[in-house]
Every structure is written in structure tokens, then in C-alpha cells.
Design goal:
Helix content: 55-70%
Oligomer: single chain
CATH topology: Hypothetical protein af1432
CATH architecture: Orthogonal Bundle
Number of helices: 17
Order of helices and strands: HHHHHHHHHHHHHHHHH
CATH class: Mainly Alpha
Number of strands: 0
CATH superfamily: Hypothetical protein af1432
Length: 380
């Protein structure tokens, strides 16, 4: 599915709409994401730290904007569809629950009976079912290419039946988008969005970890890969933070340039058709850089994501999600009517499965602030 050669070409939307005279289909998709309630809620959802911790730390919203900016730069240099790439990047975290991956892990465990919780497929549910902005349909009615990129922004899906189930859930797409358009591999634009995500969080999680005092200058100086960018010794105490900030920028610049250079070589000889263009790993770092990124991620996992400070937050977050789930499971009728009245849930014949799906969606829609305030209220 290569649409880069014609930015106005799309396989279409589930609900037909008249074309816009001043925007391409993917520009409209981008705008719909930005104007959605789910997008605004990202400002109060965790990236690494609780969104209520410090106004300087990244939230899901600021992270998303940074991913989008990086993705636009890469897409432009690779002559891909910038608007589609930006749409996927802006939408990629809409399905995240409060407290980031900790919230996702808890919801996944609590909903194992209905197949668990995955923020990528939750994002698809948000933009096709849960977001309400139009009187004629549920969701945002995005183009098929945008939806396909959202589902696969983390890479190829290993089971086509899993994709079909996601797209055909509640018969949303039956008779409107044919299954033959589905492939296991993501579009080049989705691949760009995925690796832009990696570039953004590797550099910016370091910046936030340093700002929080968890990652010291000495630790970063000796860290794999990132330490290579801390080449000069700061002359003054207050210049240390500037040195770290510069190193973060240098890391991003290196990764973007490496990705563009390697990807150009990978796609140079590809035939411009759907069978060839949607092959995995065409957008890629060089092999040496991949090794260095893995070493850096291992360092961050050990020294930041599993630090005492973050583990304390993870423990608190897990307890909050558990408590919310138990409370609303026993007080189901107190869930807002916006969820209870959604026709989507009427498809579940098993009342417990209906309850679990609705409860999962309701909690996933919460921000950190909403979850913590609700927890305090129900704990009285």
C-alpha cells in the first residue's frame, strides 16, 4: 500500500464523505486526531513519570508531538507521505491507559478472560468506536491507510487473522474494505512512525531521568552509546545540564541521519507496488546502530525504568488500577452514561464479557489525574 506518489489517493473511509477542497484525506485525518478528546487527554497521561509529578517532565502528549516532528523530518527526506506519517505518529499512543505501560500491564492481567489489553488495538478502538465527535457515526472515520498504520506502528503483525479480527470487530469494515488489502507488514510511513518513537523516547527519557536526579552525569558519561555524545567535560556546575541537553540533541541527530541513510539504500531498488513496498524492515538503522540502541535500552531499563523511584511509582499505579477495577466492577452502574450507552457493547452476548470490555475502556480513558482523584474518592 504505497500512496506516497499520490498524497490524495486512499482506499477510502468506512463512511463515505465528500472530499475536502483544501485538504488531502490524510491531512483531514491528522486534523481529526489533533481535535479529538483522546488526544487532549494525553497531556495528563504518563510517559515515564506520573503526569502530576513535575511540569517539566514529558507526558504522552509532549512525547507524541516530539515523535511527530521527528517522523515528519524522516518522511520528507525519504519522499514518503508526510501527512500520513504524521497522522500515525500523532495517533500512536491514543490507546494508552493512565500510568503508561504499568497501567497497560495491569489492565492486560485484569482482562485476560477477554483476551487482555493492548494499547495498539485500544488505539484502533478509540478512533473507530469510542471517540464521539460526529452525529453520523462512532469514531473519527479515518482513512484505511491511517487505521492500518496505527495497528502496525510497532512493526509487523504475526497473524493475519489477528488483523482481520481487529478490523472486522463488530462488522465495522465488512463489505467496505476488502480483506485482500490487509498485509502483515506495515507501510513505510508506519515504519517511520515506529522508529521515530524509539528515537524520541531514548533521548528524551534520558533527559527526564537526569532532570529527576535518577540518572547522574557520571552514570550517563559511562553509559553505552549515549556516553559517546558526552565528549567534553563541563567547566561549571550549572553547565552540566546543558551538556546533557546537547548530548540528547546530538543523539537524535545521529539516529535520524543514520535511519535516513540506511533506509534510502533499502528502498532504492523496490518496485512501487503494494506487494513490494509493504515489506518489513525497509525503514531501519544500520546494524551497528541497532546494536548500540539495544545496549542503551538495556541501560535505561536497569537504571531508569526499574530504578527505586520508578518502581515506587509503578507499585502505586498498579494498586490504583486494581482498586479502580474492583470498585467499578462492583459498582458498574456508576460508570458514566457515555460508556454505558455506547451501542458497541450490545454486541457482547456474555454479560461478564460486556462488563469487562466496558470497564477496561472506561479505565483506559482516564488520565493519571482522573485515576488518582477517583482512587482518593473511593478510598474514603
Amino acid at each position: 500500500m504505497n500512496i506516497a506518489s499520490d498524497p490524495n489517493k486512499s482506499l477510502g473511509r468506512v463512511h463515505r464523505e465528500a472530499p475536502c477542497s483544501i485538504r488531502s484525506p490524510f491531512q483531514r485525518d491528522r486534523d481529526r486526531i489533533i481535535h479529538s478528546k483522546a488526544f487532549r487527554k494525553l497531556q495528563n497521561k504518563s510517559q515515564v513519570f506520573f503526569s502530576t509529578t513535575n511540569d517539566i517532565f514529558r507526558t504522552r502528549l509532549t512525547h507524541t508531538l516530539e515523535v511527530s516532528q521527528i517522523a515528519r523530518t524522516i518522511a520528507n527526506h525519504l519522499s514518503l507521505n508526510i501527512d500520513l506519517c504524521e497522522t500515525i505518529a500523532l495517533a500512536h499512543d491514543l490507546g494508552h491507559p493512565p500510568f503508561g505501560h504499568t497501567g497497560e500491564e495491569r489492565l492486560n492481567s485484569l482482562t485476560h478472560e477477554i483476551g487482555g489489553f493492548d494499547h495498539n488495538f485500544q488505539t484502533l478502538k478509540v478512533v473507530t468506536i469510542l471517540e464521539r465527535q460526529y452525529s453520523n457515526f462512532y469514531g473519527l472515520n479515518l482513512c484505511f491507510e491511517s487505521l492500518d498504520g496505527i495497528v502496525k506502528h510497532n512493526g509487523p503483525v504475526d497473524d493475519k487473522n489477528k488483523i482481520i479480527k481487529a478490523f472486522w470487530d463488530q462488522n465495522i469494515f465488512v463489505g467496505k474494505i476488502r480483506a485482500r488489502y490487509l498485509s502483515l507488514s506495515p507501510s513505510l510511513e508506519a515504519q517511520v512512525a515506529s522508529l521515530s518513537d524509539d528515537i524520541a523516547y531514548c533521548a528524551h527519557d534520558i533527559a527526564d531521568g537526569y532532570e529527576a536526579g535518577i540518572l547522574s552525569y557520571e552514570s550517563l558519561k559511562n553509559s553505552p552509546f549515549f556516553g559517546e555524545f558526552l565528549v567534553s567535560e563541563p567547566l561549571f556546575e550549572d553547565s552540566i545540564s546543558l551538556s546533557v541537553a546537547q548530548a540528547c540533541r546530538d543523539l537524535i541527530r545521529f539516529l535520524v541521519n543514520d535511519l535516513i541513510s540506511c533506509s534510502l539504500k533499502n528502498i532504492e531498488g523496490l518496485q512501487k507496488n503494494a506487494d513490494d513496498i509493504n515489506t518489513p524492515n525497509q525503514i531501519a538503522f544500520s546494524s551497528d546502530t541497532v546494536k548500540k540502541i539495544m545496549e542503551l535500552k538495556s541501560y535505561l531499563f536497569k537504571n531508569l525504568y526499574r530504578s527505586q523511584e520508578i518502581n515506587s511509582m509503578r507499585s502505586q499505579a498498579g494498586g490504583v488500577v486494581n482498586a479502580l477495577f474492583e470498585h467499578y466492577f462492583d459498582n458498574f452502574d456508576t460508570i458514566p452514561a457515555l460508556f454505558l450507552e455506547n451501542e458497541y457493547y450490545s454486541k457482547f452476548k456474555n454479560s461478564k464479557h460486556r462488563k469487562l470490555n466496558l470497564l477496561s475502556d472506561f479505565i483506559a480513558s482516564m488520565t493519571d489525574k482522573e485515576a488518582l482523584e477517583t482512587f482518593d474518592r473511593i478510598s474514603v
